[in-house]
């Protein structure tokens, strides 16, 4: 059996396992990596090379630096101010969307959602606003923030950024902002005039009240709060001016994390606990499969098959829609990092096949991978609000499917203006 066929079989088995989740996702990742080595599709050194990637180093640093704002209570203070300006439920929905987007642009989207949960429950207990609507708004805002800066959704943005730079094209700190900012504006306008009608309105249960009263905002000495903000701002500046300083972004993030620990924002043990080993395994462990797809010709074969399945069309806009839809569906049931890693070589092969610059298709892939908003199992932030909001599985789809469709249409029309299909 040829290496290409073996690689495709491993890919199909991995995707099936991700969807069924009969075994943990990370075990599927490790089993795939072992199979690739045993079958000599990649060498052992290549198989483990992903665990030393700058993507992982960037993620570790950013998670620790961003979490300092939550640990010191700065995010609690910022979020609490929103209640002073939003008087109606619809105004509150938009206010939470905006604030969650801003916070998530520099911080973990899971952390952003987590800090909003007790605040929203308290607001709703006092005002009578729908907690399920506001929690869904916080979730959508946090996901949107990941598209505003390079560190917003560091794992995805750095992953696609590294790939674009490897292809010989520039990818700066605010590259993702070119499409992220317009998408956020579109989301806010849509939610204010139309989308709020589709948000689930579920009565608050007694358990929710107890949850809120037992949740206490974090507090810390004033100097720690100021320090956490200062470190984050310095890290931001360091990433923006990495060319001028000569210090790579991932190293700036690591430096910021070390400073937070040395200054006592966290203990060393706390810093270790903030770094998810599951995320590291996902990021590093899928690298050999992506390598095998590319080097065995499997990615090119799948790309050719994809084009045949869509009728042999080479219409770049039609193919862009297919890529967006496929990515969106896949990322509802598996990590967006896994989805992007699996599809990246295929998307590049498709671009080569139809003769377009791959940047635009890679950006479509990246944006579509953040459409993890249609099911409660799509991503950690979706999991976080599930029990607090009292949602059903279908509530996510009913609430957000139209927004996902609008995002797709907008991306297909607008992305080529920033990243042209043809050189």
Automatic annotation (TrEMBL):
<feature type="transmembrane region" description="Helical">
    <location>
        <begin position="179"/>
        <end position="199"/>
    </location>
</feature>
<feature type="transmembrane region" description="Helical">
    <location>
        <begin position="27"/>
        <end position="43"/>
    </location>
</feature>
<feature type="transmembrane region" description="Helical">
    <location>
        <begin position="360"/>
        <end position="379"/>
    </location>
</feature>
<feature type="transmembrane region" description="Helical">
    <location>
        <begin position="223"/>
        <end position="241"/>
    </location>
</feature>
<keyword id="KW-0472">Membrane</keyword>
<feature type="transmembrane region" description="Helical">
    <location>
        <begin position="305"/>
        <end position="326"/>
    </location>
</feature>
<feature type="transmembrane region" description="Helical">
    <location>
        <begin position="134"/>
        <end position="159"/>
    </location>
</feature>
<keyword id="KW-1133">Transmembrane helix</keyword>
<feature type="transmembrane region" description="Helical">
    <location>
        <begin position="400"/>
        <end position="422"/>
    </location>
</feature>
<keyword id="KW-0812">Transmembrane</keyword>
<dbReference type="GO" id="GO:0055085">
    <property type="term" value="P:transmembrane transport"/>
</dbReference>
<feature type="domain" description="Citrate transporter-like">
    <location>
        <begin position="18"/>
        <end position="240"/>
    </location>
</feature>
<dbReference type="GO" id="GO:0005886">
    <property type="term" value="C:plasma membrane"/>
</dbReference>
<dbReference type="Pfam" id="PF03600">
    <property type="entry name" value="CitMHS"/>
</dbReference>
<keyword id="KW-0677">Repeat</keyword>
<feature type="transmembrane region" description="Helical">
    <location>
        <begin position="55"/>
        <end position="80"/>
    </location>
</feature>
<dbReference type="InterPro" id="IPR004680">
    <property type="entry name" value="Cit_transptr-like_dom"/>
</dbReference>
<feature type="transmembrane region" description="Helical">
    <location>
        <begin position="275"/>
        <end position="293"/>
    </location>
</feature>
<protein>
    <submittedName>
        <fullName>Anion transporter</fullName>
    </submittedName>
</protein>
<keyword id="KW-0813">Transport</keyword>
<feature type="transmembrane region" description="Helical">
    <location>
        <begin position="333"/>
        <end position="354"/>
    </location>
</feature>
<feature type="transmembrane region" description="Helical">
    <location>
        <begin position="247"/>
        <end position="266"/>
    </location>
</feature>
<dbReference type="InterPro" id="IPR051679">
    <property type="entry name" value="DASS-Related_Transporters"/>
</dbReference>
<feature type="transmembrane region" description="Helical">
    <location>
        <begin position="92"/>
        <end position="122"/>
    </location>
</feature>
């Amino acid at each position: 059996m040829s290496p290409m066929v073996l690689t495709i079989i491993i890919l199909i088995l991995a995707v099936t396992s991700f969807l069924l989740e009969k075994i943990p996702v990370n075990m599927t990742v490790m089993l795939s990596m072992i199979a690739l080595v045993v079958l000599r599709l990649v060498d052992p050194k290549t198989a483990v090379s992903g665990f030393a990637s700058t993507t992982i180093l960037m993620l570790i640093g950013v998670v620790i630096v961003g979490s300092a704002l939550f640990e010191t209570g700065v995010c609690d203070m910022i979020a609490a101010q929103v209640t002073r300006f939003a008087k109606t439920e619809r105004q509150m929905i938009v206010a939470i969307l905006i604030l969650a987007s801003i916070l998530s642009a520099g911080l973990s989207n899971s952390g952003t959602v987590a800090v909003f949960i007790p605040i929203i429950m308290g607001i709703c207990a006092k005002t009578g606003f729908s907690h399920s609507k506001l929690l869904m708004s916080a979730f959508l805002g946090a996901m949107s923030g990941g598209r505003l800066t390079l560190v917003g959704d560091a794992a995805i943005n750095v992953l696609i950024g590294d790939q674009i730079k490897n292809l010989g094209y520039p990818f700066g700190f605010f590259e993702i902002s070119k499409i992220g900012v317009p998408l956020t504006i579109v989301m806010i306008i849509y939610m204010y005039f139309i989308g709020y009608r589709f948000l689930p309105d579920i009565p608050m249960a007694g358990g929710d009240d107890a949850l809120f009263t037992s949740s206490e905002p974090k507090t810390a000495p004033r100097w720690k709060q100021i320090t956490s903000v200062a470190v984050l701002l310095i890290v931001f500046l360091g990433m923006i001016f990495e060319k001028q300083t000569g210090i790579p972004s991932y190293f700036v993030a690591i430096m910021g994390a070390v400073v937070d620990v040395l200054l006592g924002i966290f203990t060393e043990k706390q810093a270790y606990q903030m770094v998810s080993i599951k995320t590291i395994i996902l990021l590093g462990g899928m690298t050999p499969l992506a390598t095998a797809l590319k080097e065995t010709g499997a990615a090119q074969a799948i790309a050719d098959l994809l084009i045949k399945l869509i009728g042999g069309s080479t219409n770049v806009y039609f193919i862009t829609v297919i890529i967006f839809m496929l990515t969106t569906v896949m990322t509802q049931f598996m990590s967006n990092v896994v989805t992007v890693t699996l599809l990246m070589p295929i998307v590049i092969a498709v671009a080569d096949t139809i003769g377009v610059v791959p940047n635009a298709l890679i950006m479509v892939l990246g944006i579509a991978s953040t459409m993890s908003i249609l099911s409660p199992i799509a991503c950690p932030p979706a999991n976080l609000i599930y029990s607090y909001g009292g949602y059903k599985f279908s509530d996510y789809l009913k609430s957000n499917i139209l927004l996902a469709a609008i995002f797709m249409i907008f991306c297909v029309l607008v992305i080529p203006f920033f990243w042209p299909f043809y050189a």
